[in-house]
Amino acid sequence: MDYAANLVMTLPELVLSIGALALMLVAAWGGQAAARAISWTAVAVIGGAAIALIGPASSGGEAFYGLYRADAFASFAKILIYGAAAVAIVMAPRFFARTSGDDLRPEYPVLILLSCVGMGMMVSAGDLLTLYIGLELQSLAAYVLASFMRQDQRSAEAGLKYFVLGALASGILLYGISLVYGFSGTTLFDSIATAYVGHHSKGLLFGLVFVFAGLAFKMSAVPFHMWTPDVYEGAPTPVTAFFGSAPKVAAVLLAVRVAIEAMGPATFEWRQIVIFASLASIVLGAAGAIGQTNIKRLLAYSSINNVGFALVGLAAGTPEGVAAVAVYMAIYVVMTLGSFLVVLQMRGADGQPIETIASLSGLSRTQPRLALALGIFMFSLAGIPPLFGFYAKFAVFWAAVQAGLFAFAAIGIAASVIGAYYYLRIVKTIYFDEPAGAGFAPMESRVEGGLILASAAFLSPLGYLAIPAMGVWSMAAARALF
């Protein structure tokens, strides 16, 4: 084995790991004063990891005897993960300065970098143990991030809930991995696929169910969604934005890789699980959001709802379906980050965050540009044309129809109407209700304002100009799995 060639394929993870360790030492010596410099350096490290994807890291094939995959699919996922992580770092300093009266602690960007290493291993996994190690590395960093505001009771509670339920899900996943290994004699995806060919034992089917159950928790799909609203509400807003984007991409696209590469011959069996999880997530995510009064809890149920739509493409089990999932997750990341960037601007005259939906009343009259951006994000999440969010839903449902899943697609489209209600309720609050109190403090950060503007422009009809490039890129990523 040529170790040098293998290490080049894992160069993005090496860049992130070395960068995280170096910044951890800087944080230990520099202390609080170095926090902002560390944050911007962490963004540069993420940029370096993205540049490292050029070459063998995105097209080198298998490394370390099949444990790691450097292909177009992993490259697509990592670009989304790195972009979301960078935004989560950029939006943090001002939030922590306002809420805790103290500047951002330097451990925050380091934890984000370590989480990115884990997510990179997840989407590049070619073996169940690589999958598990990557997932645990991502999760351990996430548990700390959820409880990052130590003086905030809600943040501490969010971290504890996430840790306890995450440990349960990890146990379920590990049990599924042990079953698959016990009945197939291997943990490599390619060899597992061979074991699923033809008549396979009940043990392999039980292993399949437990593996998908563990992955469903990580992507917050029903019935393993129970942690999502509480963690999203309690965690600091930049952390919630991170949870709603990068780990979600990693979990969904990891599930796609496992389903297609490791369990492709058992498509009939896992398709039933995916269809149930998809429809249940669409319906429960929509119904659960209707009665919410907290914007972060509403966006938590929105994320459950959107995972359901993404799984529609996976249920197709075709290259077109996988490409549709990739496109959906790309658009979803922008919608989610844009929405949380607006939530970050919801603060009173004293600088403290405001999270009630009622506080958005009359926002169109006090801050019309912010109201327009939030309206675009809500309409796009609802999938209302001509905004770009409509194309995301169209892509996954079209893939399901092409695969012959007509009833599934019809039920999913009908259920999507439920979700439109609570998105439209926010738009109604913004544009038709009387202003609530003195309104929000004016936006101070040009960086956050620029990110909101860029996100809104991408989700506007201008986004359709990106369809040819996204189509080619996503199809190349999908074909890497087949």
Q: Could you explain how this protein is built, in words?
A:
With 482 residues, this protein is mainly alpha-helical. The protein is 75% helix and 1% strand. The chain contains 23 helices and two strands. It has helices spanning 3-9, 11-30, 35-52, 56-59, 72-90, 92-99, 107-123, 128-146, 153-184, 189-196, 202-218, 228-234, 237-243, 246-262, 267-290, 295-316, 319-344, 363-366, 368-382, 388-402, 406-432, 446-459, 467-479; strands spanning 61-63, 68-70. It has a two-stranded antiparallel ribbon with strand order 1-2. Helix 7 (107-123) packs antiparallel against helix 8 (128-146) and helix 14 (246-262) packs parallel to helix 16. The longest helix is centred in the middle third of the chain and has 32 residues, at 153-184. The two termini are 25 Å apart. 57% of the residues are buried. The model has no long low-confidence stretch (mean pLDDT 89).
